[in-house]
Write a structure and sequence with these properties.
Blueprint (H helix, E strand, L loop, with lengths): L7 E2 L1 E6 L9 H14 L2 E2 L5 E5 L10 H10 L8 E4 L2 H4 L3 H13 L3 E4 L8 H34 L11 E4 L2 E4 L1 H15 L4 H10 L12 H9 L6 E5 L15 E5 L8 H17 L18 E3 L6 E3 L12 E4 H5 L8 E2 H18 L1 E3 L2 H7 L6 H20 L5 H23 L5 E3 L2 H14 L6 H8 L3 E7 L4 E6 L2
Parallel strand pairs: 1-3, 2-4, 2-5, 5-6, 11-17
Antiparallel strand pairs: 7-8, 9-10, 12-13, 13-14, 15-16, 17-18
Helix pairs in contact: 6-9, 7-8, 11-15, 13-14
């Protein structure tokens, strides 16, 4: 009687990227992979064929089938002993991740084999495998650089690289004004330059049935995006680092703006006038400050919580026009994310603030915000960036432990060293405390004028608030110690 040996079980990972650079289709890859596996005594059942289509190997984060395969291989009774790939580049082009996952699989008794790149056993085989991985990663890096170089060259020539914004349509790779939508863009600039608020403009456009390119109702962020978009001036905007423009970081030095070949929708005067007003709003109302809402009290948007840094705002449900002793509270405390109450009545904090302002004028000494000092000394260490780097190291150390690359003892050691470094950086950052600075006589006079202005009873709270924003950066209220720290704009 003739007996046929049972075939051992293996898995196959098939991946096709957007580049479609392989000479074989996915079906052809699987066919040849199964043939190769059969010669080595392995069978690849359909349930152990893992397939990711149109996804780059630069990172495993979005490769769902890859992650499912790794999870299955990590099980105590994993169903396969080998993972076959057409090329090592199909497994990963990031050498660091490739080593992490291969080491993890090796500890579980699972090997990764390339069908078209057979590797001899022993030390030389390991060296050759590392060289192949390095070449694959270099190819990806070089390809990305070439693509970026090509796009940068097109942007330099004023050629569009992205779909046209609202108000334009594209034909033959060129932007053209889109009739009524172009008129809406002109209307937005004219109304904003005439002093109308962004939220009011957005609300009106939405009521008229106007929608953004994505079909959404216009809002104040969309209005600001329109007003900041130099495309309407006949320009092309391109981010050298890829993400600055999409994050609406309009002042980023890595954003290039060049003359385009399309017809502008607005004039240069309209553009300049809008930018001046936007910059003024940005200076008076920093990020996260509420804009274009009724100013019910003069310190609105200026007072911060000493515990979390959140802005103190009117308590919800308070009828501001009928309650003279209404209170403000940390907005984060109201949401539940801050656990220290900082409630205080408006008359009480107004009185304390005016007293503090009078003392600063009398002493001719003013505290400058730490944030303002950082702007004056840009050459100092960027502690936030250094701390972020150490925190990423901490994440990688944890990942290495979870992947069973490092032992618990090694992870504990690494974690302790990194956390000590983070704390040391935070201690150095804490030393950058605000210092009281002597200010010129003209500045003292300016503060005195503002003080006299806000003391007048016939002046609106909004006018007082705007006057204070000329000299005050922020006010830190510490309820536990009953203190009010006033930070000035230099």
């Amino acid at each position: 009687m003739t007996t046929t040996p049972l075939l051992k079980i293996a898995a196959a990972y098939i991946r096709v990227s957007d580049e479609r650079q392989d000479e074989y289709s996915p079906d052809s890859q699987l066919k040849k992979t199964r043939e190769y596996a059969a010669k080595e005594g392995y069978q690849i059942p359909d349930e152990y064929v893992f397939y990711d289509d149109g996804i780059s190997a630069k990172s495993t984060r979005k490769r769902n089938e890859f992650n499912r395969m790794i999870a299955m291989a990590k099980e105590k009774d994993h169903p396969f002993e080998v993972i076959y790939v057409w090329k090592f580049s199909r497994f990963a082009r990031n050498q660091e991740e490739s080593m992490v996952y291969k080491n993890l699989l090796r500890k579980k008794g699972v090997s990764v084999v390339s069908v078209s790149e057979p590797i001899p056993e022993g030390h030389y085989g390991t060296l050759i495998e590392r060289i192949i991985e390095w070449m694959d990663e270099f190819y990806l890096i070089n390809l990305s650089a070439e693509v970026q170089r090509g796009m940068h060259e097109k942007a330099t020539r004023g050629e569009p690289l992205v779909p046209p914004p609202f108000g334009y349509y594209m034909k033959d790779k060129k932007y053209y004004p889109d009739g009524e939508k172009a008129d809406i863009i002109r209307e937005i600039f004219d109304r904003f330059n005439a002093g109308e608020g962004m939220r009011a403009i957005a609300t009106d456009l939405g009521a008229r049935g106007i929608r953004t390119k994505r079909g959404n109702l216009p809002d104040n962020r969309w209005i600001e995006y329109v007003l900041r978009n130099p495309t309407y001036l006949g320009k092309i905007r391109w981010s050298l680092e890829g993400r600055a423009a999409s994050k609406r970081d309009y002042d980023n030095e890595n954003i290039m703006i060049v003359d385009g070949h399309h017809e502008p929708i607005i004039t240069e005067d309209q553009w300049n006038q809008a930018q001046e007003r936007l910059d003024e709003i940005k200076r008076k109302y920093p990020k996260h400050a509420r804009r274009e809402q009724p100013v019910d009290y003069m310190l609105k948007g200026l007072v911060r919580c000493s515990s979390c840094g959140g802005t103190l705002a009117l308590l919800s449900g308070v009828k501001t026009t009928k309650n003279p002793n209404r209170s403000i509270q940390c907005c984060n405390y109201s949401r539940g994310s801050c656990h220290t109450s900082h409630s205080i009545t408006i008359p009480k904090i107004n009185k304390a603030f005016i007293t503090g302002l009078e003392e600063a004028i009398g002493n001719k000494t003013f505290a400058i915000s730490p944030d303002r000092k950082k702007q004056e000394k840009p050459k100092g260490p960027d502690y936030d960036k250094l701390i972020a780097i150490e925190e990423k190291k901490l994440e990688r150390a944890k990942a290495a432990y979870l992947a069973e690359i490092d032992s618990l003892e090694q992870y504990a050691k690494n974690k302790n060293e990194i956390e000590q470094q983070i704390q040391a950086l935070k201690d150095l950052q804490a030393k950058d405390t605000p210092k009281e600075t002597k200010i010129s006589t003209s500045y003292v006079s300016k503060v005195q004028e503002v003080l006299e202005f806000i003391k007048q009873e016939n002046i609106s709270e909004k006018a007082k608030n705007e006057a204070l924003r000329e000299i005050i950066d922020k006010i830190i209220y510490d309820k536990a110690n009953s203190t009010l720290a006033i930070y000035f704009i230099p």
